[in-house]
Design goal:
alpha/beta, binds (4S)-4,5-diaminopentanoic acid, 14 strands, about 40% helix, Aspartate Aminotransferase, domain 1
């Protein structure tokens, strides 16, 4: 009789690659959450991906619910996207000069987001939000910004205050190296409390340049806005002459073709985008109505630039992705909704049957299971989730071939390539994981 390979045997090549990486990169990674510190175990090194599946260096296969942290809404290596990138690459990979490909993608974005009349492409979500803040300050001539605890808007200095994502995962309150002076004009308030925003405007009248918000938070796990909350933010900002920035890096083209602003019917002044608009290549964007975008150089005095901005390969991948989403819009978003609902409910029910308290949040195809009874509506409630249970859940799932974000404070995503078979297999894996839950021993990485 052959015995089941142990975790160490199953992950031998990934383990070796991790040891090599640790000599080269801090924590062996180029982005902190990938190190699996919060969940323990070795991170699988990925060699290829197709559709809903990832394959690691030891040929283990996983159903993927990370989707490269959001971009892969069509699944991995989608044939239309791959072909568009290959075609673009044959004509050169970067020119540092204007191309028609930039306009192709921009027109698709503007059509989907009526609040955007002009935009600027950058290479990451961090650049997009950092530039949006600079733009809001330039436009209003004001200093303060309001952000929300547990929201993450990339790693620009003034935004690394009570941030979610890796900062929350690692339990770092802010970041070393960010000067008090750089963060002094950032007001971090609890998400979903309009009263606190009202108080801030009363305290700093006509001094707040912008409210920046993830309209559906993904970076403290998935946390939806309370009924009427986004509309209230819109009113409060307008009343004081501040701008409202929707950080739709995660939600844009994800929870609806026109993002959260379409789904909730709220028009922000500035929108930031990333992830899906790059179809898996590095792209970010910030956009607004003409009057605001006139501030951006070379038209106006707000400076921002980038060597790889509007990169032709990235534009091709983004355009192919958005074209496909636009063409099959009705079908894609309704299947994403249906499959995500099935998955989230199925896994929550499996937990309940095993007597494990789980509170799930979901908006369309982004979702999170928190290990607690109470509803998660802000950072305070999110931070009460039992992260040891989450780590056990994560490890049990990965051992059963299901790849979830290695942090309680990152949303999971479903793609159009996931099948009902994938969903059923994932629920079954959760059932078995929860059944073995009590006996599992959690050993976080040192
Ligand atoms: N902060 C990213 C998601 N919220 C994680 C990016 C990564 O590790 O690739």
């Amino acid at each position: 009789m052959t015995s089941k390979p142990s975790q160490n045997e199953r992950m031998r090549k990934s383990r070796d690659l991790q040891l090599r990486a640790e000599k080269l990169f801090p924590g062996g990674v180029n982005s902190p959450v990938r190190a699996f510190r919060a969940v323990g175990g070795d991170p699988p090194f990925i060699v290829r991906a197709r559709g809903s599946k990832l394959c690691d260096a030891d040929e283990n296969e996983y159903i993927d619910y990370v989707g490269s942290w959001g971009p892969m809404i069509l699944g991995h290596a989608d044939p239309e996207v791959t072909e568009a990138v290959q075609r673009a690459a044959q004509n050169g990979t970067s020119f540092g000069a204007s191309t028609a490909a930039e306009a192709e993608l921009a027109e698709l974005v503007i059509e989907a987001f009526p609040s955007i009349e002009k935009l600027r492409f950058v290479s990451s979500g961090t650049e997009a939000t950092m530039s949006a803040i600079r733009l809001a300050r330039a436009f209003t001539g004001r200093k303060y910004i309001i952000k929300f605890e547990g929201c993450y808007h990339g790693h620009a200095d003034s935004l690394l205050v009570k941030a979610g994502s890796g900062v929350a995962t690692l339990g770092i309150p802010g970041s070393a190296g960010v000067l008090e002076e750089q963060a002094q004009f950032t007001l971090a308030l609890p998400f979903n409390s309009a009263a606190r925003v009202e108080e801030a405007f009363a305290r700093y009248p006509e001094q707040i340049a912008a409210i920046i918000v993830e309209p559906v938070v993904g970076n403290m796990g998935c946390v939806p806005p309370a009924e009427g909350y986004l509309k209230k933010l819109r009113q409060l900002a307008a009343k004081d002459g501040a701008l409202l920035i929707f950080d739709e890096v995660m939600t844009g083209f994800r929870i609806a073709f026109g993002g959260a602003q379409e789904l909730y019917g709220v028009k922000p002044d500035i929108t930031t985008l990333g992830k899906i608009i790059g179809g898996g290549l590095p792209v970010g964007a910030y956009g607004a109505r003409e009057e605001i975008m006139q501030m951006v150089a070379p038209l106006g005095p707000m400076y921002q630039a980038g060597t790889l901005s509007g990169n032709p390969l990235a534009m091709a991948a983004g355009t192919a992705t958005l074209r496909r989403l636009k063409r099959d819009r009705l079908k894609i978003y309704s299947v994403l909704e249906e499959n995500s609902a099935k998955l989230v409910q199925g896994i929550s029910e499996s937990a309940q049957k095993s007597g494990i308290e789980v509170s799930a949040n979901r908006v369309g195809s982004m979702f999170t299971w928190f290990f607690q009874q109470e509803e998660v509506r802000d950072w305070d409630t999110a931070s009460r989730s039992n992260t040891t249970s989450f780590a056990q859940f994560h490890r049990g799932m990965i051992e059963r071939g299901i790849y979830l974000p290695p942090s309680q404070y990152e949303a999971a995503f479903l793609s159009a390539a996931h099948t009902t078979g994938d969903i059923e297999q994932s629920i079954e894996a959760a059932r078995n994981t929860f059944a073995s839950f009590q006996s599992a021993i959690f050993t976080p990485n040192p």
